[in-house]
């Protein structure tokens, strides 16, 4: 019996020594120490032995079992260590490799131009006002001297949501709301940049959604010459110090008198080129003195207060400034287009 156990132990240890992974080791454990293994078999058969033999064989069987278990434990630790060492060797990271450059975005050209215009007017003491894009008919039209069925409403084909609500066609409702908040007390000096919507068929120069920046100054003794001074400063800062401006008579329902402002061509200096269509002048924005009806509806006494207002399209400004030939480029999100404005 002792010889058999001795042989079993030698055999098991040999196999353990020769094994090369943890799975194999587990199989050896089951084979020798498992419920159906030879050691268990010996221990089970102890009942048949005599009283003298029993403790001797029992003690020996236990010793053999412990010996095999120790062999298994030692080998298992050895294999685990080898596995870790192998992984450490395989998974080393070369920290000296240069990293992959992170892709960096940039401001959308329209955003850049809007921010440039905002900064310019902020530097002249204006503040920025905002308002809802879904407006009431009252603020979008009526408060701006455009009563229902007024023919000038046709200039701004609109998207109505209900009888009463529409997507604003201009940012003027923001000015009307701001004036009302002032409760008849000046000064008001704001610009209102934002998205506006008009029912239009999109082409190179039209979009059903675009941006507008309007400005409004209301105070005592505000005159057309003040409007001219502010707009001239804007034109020079935006398109170059040697720009000249000219005002032509125009019509807007919310201003009287109304003007259109041109700047001398920044490309040819006024001699005539393709940019200015050989006129020497480029149309930039519309403006005028706030109509007394608009002031009164917004709670200002039009005998005491006057004001000027202007409105421009930042897309048009950006197109002129950067030679962009199609308004749809601003909304197409074509990375090839956007990339060209990385450094502006
Ligand atoms: C244009 C013309 C303009 C205004 C907008 C305005 C607002 C109030 C009162 C009076 Cl609350 N006027 N805004 C005035 C004149 C022209 O925009 O061609 N924009 C692109």
Automatic annotation (TrEMBL):
> Which PROSITE patterns did the record assign?
AA_TRNA_LIGASE_II (PS50862)
Main subcellular localisation: cytoplasm
Identify the keywords attached in UniProt to this record, alphabetized. Aminoacyl-tRNA synthetase, ATP-binding, Cytoplasm, Ligase, Magnesium, Metal-binding, Nucleotide-binding, Protein biosynthesis
Reactions performed catalytically? tRNA(Phe) + L-phenylalanine + ATP = L-phenylalanyl-tRNA(Phe) + AMP + diphosphate + H(+)
Limits of the Aminoacyl-transfer RNA synthetases class-II family profile domain: 111-320
One of its Pfam families is tRNA-synt_2d
Subcellular localization:
Cytoplasm
Q: What's the cofactor?
A: Mg(2+)
- Cofactor binding: number and manner: Binds 2 magnesium ions per tetramer.
Q: Which residues bind Mg(2+)?
A: 256
EC assignment: the record states 6.1.1.20
Quaternary structure (record): Tetramer of two alpha and two beta subunits.
The family database entries (NCBIfam families) matched by this protein are listed as: pheS
Family per record: Belongs to the class-II aminoacyl-tRNA synthetase family. Phe-tRNA synthetase alpha subunit type 1 subfamily.
What protein am I looking at? Answer: Phenylalanine--tRNA ligase alpha subunit
What is the protein's species of origin? Fictibacillus iocasae
């Amino acid at each position: 019996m002792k010889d058999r156990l001795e042989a079993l132990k030698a055999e098991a240890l040999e196999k353990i020594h020769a094994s090369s992974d943890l799975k194999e080791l587990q199989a050896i454990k089951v084979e020798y120490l498992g419920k159906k293994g030879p050691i268990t078999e010996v221990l089970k058969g102890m009942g048949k032995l005599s009283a003298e033999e029993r403790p001797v064989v029992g003690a020996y069987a236990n010793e053999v079992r412990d010996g095999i278990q120790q062999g298994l434990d030692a080998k298992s630790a050895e294999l685990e260590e080898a596995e870790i060492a192998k992984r450490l060797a395989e998974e080393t990271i070369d920290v000296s490799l240069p990293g992959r450059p992170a892709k960096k975005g940039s401001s959308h050209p329209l955003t850049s131009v809007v921010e440039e215009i905002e900064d310019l007017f902020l530097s002249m003491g204006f503040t920025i006002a905002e308002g809802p894009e879904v407006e009431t008919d009252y603020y979008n039209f009526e408060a701006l001297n455009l009563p229902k069925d007024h023919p000038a409403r046709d200039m701004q084909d609109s998207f109505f949501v209900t009888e009463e609500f529409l997507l604003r066609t201009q940012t003027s409702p923001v000015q009307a709301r701001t004036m009302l908040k002032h409760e008849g007390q000046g000064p008001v000096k704001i610009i209102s940049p934002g998205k506006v919507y008009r029912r239009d068929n999109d082409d190179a120069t039209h979009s059903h959604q675009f941006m507008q920046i309007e400005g409004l100054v209301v105070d005592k003794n505000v005159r057309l010459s003040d409007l001219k001074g502010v707009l001239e400063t804007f034109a020079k800062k935006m398109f170059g110090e040697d720009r000249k401006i000219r005002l032509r008579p125009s019509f807007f329902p919310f201003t009287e008198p109304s003007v259109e402002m041109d700047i001398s061509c920044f490309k040819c200096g006024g001699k005539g080129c393709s940019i200015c269509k050989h006129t020497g002048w480029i149309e930039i924005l519309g403006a005028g003195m706030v109509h007394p009806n608009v002031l009164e509806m917004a709670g200002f006494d039009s005998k005491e207060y006057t004001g000027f207002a202007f409105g421009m399209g930042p897309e048009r400004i950006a197109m002129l400034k950067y030679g962009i030939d199609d308004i749809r480029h601003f909304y197409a999100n074509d990375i090839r287009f956007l990339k060209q404005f990385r450094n502006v």
